[in-house]
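Researcher: I'm comparing several assemblies side by side, and this is the next one on my list. It has 292 residues spread over two chains. Same procedure as the others: predict the full complex and return the structure.
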Amino acid sequence: MVGRIRNLVGPTYWILTFVLTVVAVAMVAFYTPDEKTMGTIQKIFYLHLPTAICTFLACLVNFICSIAFLAQRRSACDDAAAASARVAVQLCTVVLVTGMIWGKSAWGQWWTWSPRLTFSLVLWLLYAVYLMVRSSVESEQRRALIAAVYGLIAFLDVPLVYLSVRMMPDIHPVSVSLAPAMRWTLIAWFVPITMITFGLIVVRYNLNRLDRLGRRDDEIAPSARGFEVLPAEGGAV
Amino acid sequence: MNDSQYTILAYAVGLGLLWGYAGVLWISARRRRCEAFVEPVVEKVDPWGDLGGTP
């Protein structure tokens, strides 16, 4: 299973993702019509929404891997959690930047402290701090444990981002009605953004595994399967 | 700036951040002679098989 996922992350996967991205851009430029009230600026929506959904997915992967680490104490879970957090920060940055550009054009200001925007910024900060916490703890075991607990808490902001616009007065649109061409364009954008998200997580995970292996001594004790745990406290970092 | 320019700016920045990050990872993988984009190499560096490679 792991081998199959790893095999997905090849040149073919990235070339296909790139081609689908180009197709999606072409659909925005030449196929989908302008929205009646907002005009051209609404087209940011096709990048903004899929990226936001994929941010939640990356946070969910981090949440699941954090639970898995606490349950099994396997370093692979910690590496996967770290990879998904990095990708979540990257995606959330795109969401915030595209949202700010949209806001500048639509509302006349780059930023407003509406509930959804605020919770989105908090989400970005939570996962950025997650990465800082990881880099500030030297012990591999302690780092993994702290990060896993922190990852569980950080995920609590995801439902807040989603529900805030529905439960509190907000300038951010709740839902939009789309013409068929707009709907197809949105679907066309979901595909490459989702592929980029999972591709980045898998590649980042592979690099994390290689980093960890590189840090270990060649004399690492052979262990039975199931004993694969983090190296001893104070081991090479 | 008009709406079209803001839209182009948003797509340029958004896709630049996503694909730029993919490029950074690709360079990292290449620099470490890891062929993570090309083929699984864990078997080569994981002699004990604790990552699922062949022991």
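Model: For your comparison table: Residues 23 and 29 of chain B are 10 Å apart (CA to CA).
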